[in-house]
Design brief:
Elements (H helix, E strand, L loop, with lengths): L21 H25 L5 H20 L5 H9 L5 H26 L11 H26 L10 H20 L5 H10 L7 H22 L5
Length: about 230
């Protein structure tokens, strides 16, 4: 009977995989997801789609699920402001997040405009009552968004829940359907800057969006701390 012989299996060659540091992974994730959020919104708006609110909410939802475990899934300077007040991010990280988010929004707006290449763009420029109304609704809905993010994604009472992405995405979609006709339904300084780059918002009044949205982030962070004193 022939003897059975065995041979040691040759080790499979595995090429080295480049590893990014923890901080770099967070910043790259924030850039990628903020870019696709701002890009999707700008392309939908420039092409005249009636589903801009759904586009915004759905894109944010999937990006939160995709990158939330790496960076926290902010993709919004107002949310980063709320997380800073809530003490879930330090000042150095927050500053880099803001820079990365703004850069991603501006690049996304430029790319969206180049892709759609519209003959004309309807630019929203705020004045008088329209400016006040837009400021109020952006403040309220951005507060709601940041408040929801802090409660579903950072609260110790809901560890590892599976609905955080849905809650965050639907907050944006609901807000955009409700007040999109007044302010454009932005709720995000990075998206606002991307929209201005694409020609959707007037640069002369873009400061209104940025100021009230960041203020809403601060208010949401303070509200969370007041309502959850034991959640540090």
């Amino acid at each position: 009977m022939a003897e059975a012989t065995t041979r040691e299996a040759a080790p499979a060659y595995a090429p080295p995989v480049p590893q990014l540091g923890t901080a770099a992974r967070k910043y790259v994730t924030e850039f990628i997801s903020t870019f696709f959020l701002a890009f999707a919104v700008a392309v939908a708006a420039l092409s005249g789609s009636t589903f801009v609110p759904l586009t915004a909410g759905a894109t944010l939802m999937v990006m939160v699920y995709a990158g939330g475990r790496i960076s926290g899934g902010h993709y919004n300077p107002a949310v980063t402001m709320a997380a800073l007040v809530r003490r879930r991010i330090g000042v150095p990280d927050a500053v880099v997040y803001w820079a990365v988010q703004v850069a991603a929004g501006v690049v996304a707006g430029a790319v969206a405009h180049a892709v759609v290449n519209p003959v004309t763009v309807r630019t929203l420029t705020l004045s008088g009552h329209t400016r006040a109304a837009a400021a109020v609704v952006e403040l309220l809905v951005t507060f709601a968004l940041c408040y929801v993010v802090l409660n579903v994604a950072t609260s110790k009472d809901q560890p590892g829940n599976g609905f955080f992405g849905l809650a965050i995405g639907f907050t944006v979609a609901a807000g955009a359907f409700a007040v999109g006709g007044i302010s454009g339904g932005v709720f995000n300084p990075a998206v606002a800057l991307g929209g201005a780059t694409a020609g959707l918002f007037g640069w002369s009044t873009i400061w209104v969006y940025i100021v009230v949205q960041l203020a809403a982030g601060i208010a949401a962070g303070l509200a969370f701390l007041a309502l959850n004193p034991g959640d540090k």
